[in-house]
Amino acid sequence: MTNDSGAEKRVAPALAYTDLREWIEEARKLGEVREASGLSWQQDIGMAAEVLLHDEKAPAVVFSDVPGTLKGSRVLVNFFGGKRAAMTLGFPTDMTKLELSEAFRVNYMADLKRVEPRYVNDGPVFENKITGDDIDVGIFPTPKWHEDDGGRYIGTGSFNVTRDPEEGWINCGTYRVMIHDKQTVGFYISPGKHGRIMRDKYEARGEPMPVAIVVGCDPMSFLMSSSEIPYGVCEYEVIGGIRGKPVDLVKAPITGLPVPADAEIVIEGFVMPGNMKPEGPFGEWFGYYGSDVRPEPVMDIKAIYHRNDPILLGCAPQRPPDEIARYRALTRSAIVRENIAKAGVPDVTAAWAHEIGTARLLLAVAIKQRYGGHAKQAGHVAAMCHSGAYAGRYVIVVDDDIDVSNLEEVMWAVLTRSDPATSIDIITNAWSTPLDPRIEPERKAKGDFTNSRAIIDACKPFHWKDKYPKVNQPSPEMRALARKKFGYLTE
Ligand SMILES: Cc1cc2nc3c(=O)[nH]c(=O)nc-3n(C[C@H](O)[C@H](O)[C@H](O)COP(=O)(O)O)c2cc1C
Prior knowledge:
This protein has 491 residues and is α+β, with helices and mostly antiparallel strands. The chain folds into three domains: 20-107, no CATH class; 112-314, Pnp Oxidase, Chain A (Roll); 323-477, UbiD C-terminal domain-like. Helix content is 27%, strand content 25%. It is built from 14 helices and 21 strands. The longest helix is centred in the last third of the chain and has 20 residues, at 323-342. The chain binds flavin mononucleotide. Residues 156, 171, 173-176, 188-190, 193-195, 226-228, 315, 324 line the site of flavin mononucleotide.
């Protein structure tokens, strides 16, 4: 199978939704939304989510009437799956995952269109305003997602809005947010993330950091906030570029931070320098409780705004492959391929960030080899580019006859075209995270969160590739003919 199998299909994208409610309507039209009412946040929703998130064909589910929570409030899980995956990205629902990723790359990521957001004076998010002693972040149906979690995580399908205190630009980033009590939450940001760089700057200046947390946004805004958008670029502009129209924003009254006018719930407040509380543990995307409980910054909530009957977007990680792996594979594969090409590596024909490593730990890159060292160049750049650098482990470079999204084909290339003694390069002290389960506790205790990488060159060796034994496989024409003539034998 080649990488060109339909992946070159060009389709004009069109997002059929702007906010989360319109997205739900579109998903309903596809017959992929179910309702469940009366389940508990303490256990039931987390258990049900685990079943749904591991099943690509399962519907999205809206949980309502959660006992003990705000009347009318709801939580949506499993937005990315079935036909609605394509709808979410704005493409026809009959495309394969490779075609979708390629369409996402070509239409959105290749030249990263940006449209300035538009400020409006009011929006549905201000339908309800809670301040002062009335603030209680526990009223929403925030589940305890996994049985060993240290608390309720209201922020999973959410994003934090912060402003760089020196450069002034606005960042939107998805970071888990745990409820401490009625008026405080804690969030965890890994070293090196844009939101963390901003947080460290506030801390160094001894200044409070204003934060607005958007809980319940449209899925594309969530996807962009959790993707590697370049430093200094505001995600709202990228979302506007994808929509082809400006994102409507209102200023959160206390912090002045911009938030979507149609957000479901917004929490605003300040992180005071040095104010920390234990955060975690949380079932993380590696499939472990890797970072355990640590002191993390606390946000004092100054106001909560929410729409009538607000909907929380829930995206809790599970042991991979899961829902997060599904959407990250599509989006990150596209961004990694763009990053590699933009770093000047020619003839990258495909890239896939594999689901089993939640689209980070295993990258496969296909090239049409042009010169000696080309494969090494592609592998090292993939391992260290913006989208590939954080928490990677293995990068495998293959020739362009291999389908990079097919784990068996990739491993076949490793097994038959690499030579362990000479084909593997190791990079040490690379950018990882306290979440990484393979970093020794002693190093974590010292604040060393780096790991190592293997770059596996699984291409036919360039200097004798023309002498490499022929692949034991009929030509595409002969295969098609065989299927036509003898396919009946398999029925
Ligand atoms: C569901 C989900 C949860 C995430 N949680 C965290 C988190 O708790 N901390 C973190 O640093 N990154 C987390 N990420 C990854 C970041 O959102 C991602 O790396 C993003 O690009 C960071 O943006 P930034 O560089 O603008 O800060 C999460 C991603 C997803 C999809």
